[in-house]
Inverse folding.
């Protein structure tokens, strides 16, 4: 049983294209996140949704737009892709009502922009 | 904003040697979590420390939280090739958003 699943696993695309990454969690968690991991493995939070409400919106270009249709799903749409967007994007979930709840990560989507 | 500094960035050891990674913050932390990411994998939660001076063990792994709750360490005794990966410390930011701030990670290579 996959707890946090995201698709696709790999995404290779050209500059200027628009792409989406999807994420689903079956843990019943109330909060979902998008993290970006760069080539040096640094994990940086991008967005967070709690019960479909955006609660964390870090300094991310407007080309990135998250959407949460329900608390089990969080998608990420990226417009006008740039070379610098190449990274691994991780979806994660947690139960924020349980204080200091750990994150459960998906397997990641490796985005390569050429 | 809150930052968590982690050192070293890389560590190469011979199998059987010990390994330690350190995590430091300029502010008092409410908790510290540790994650392991295998090559090509995703971060997986290992443990959480909450109390000042807390020490927890998981087999060959020993986790410590400093008395001032500003630093933490992960020590692996007698490394094995299965220990290879990147170890991250992480701390929750202020507020109750669940935002987790990660250290830069320490990538461990173990030579058999």
């Amino acid at each position: 049983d996959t707890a946090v699943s995201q698709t696709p696993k790999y995404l290779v695309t050209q500059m200027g294209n628009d792409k989406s990454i999807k994420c689903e969690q079956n843990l019943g968690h109330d909060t979902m996140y998008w993290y970006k991991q760069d080539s040096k493995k640094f994990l940086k939070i991008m967005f967070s949704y709690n019960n479909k409400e955006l609660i964390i919106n870090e300094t991310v270009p407007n080309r990135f737009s998250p959407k949460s249709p329900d608390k089990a799903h969080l998608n990420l749409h990226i417009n006008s892709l740039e070379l610098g967007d190449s990274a691994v994007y991780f979806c994660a979930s947690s139960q924020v009502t349980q204080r200091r709840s750990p994150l459960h990560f998906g397997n990641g989507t490796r985005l390569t922009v050429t | 904003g809150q930052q968590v500094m982690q050192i070293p960035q890389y560590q190469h050891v011979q199998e059987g040697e010990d390994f330690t990674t350190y995590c430091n913050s300029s502010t008092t932390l409410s908790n510290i979590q540790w994650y392991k990411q295998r090559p090509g994998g995703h971060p997986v939660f290992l443990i959480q420390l909450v109390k000042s001076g807390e020490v927890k063990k998981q087999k060959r792994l020993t986790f410590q939280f400093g008395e001032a709750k500003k630093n933490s360490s992960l020590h692996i005794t007698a490394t094995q090739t299965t220990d290879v990966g990147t170890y991250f410390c992480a701390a929750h930011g202020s507020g109750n958003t669940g935002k987790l701030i990660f250290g830069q990670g320490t990538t461990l290579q173990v030579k058999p």
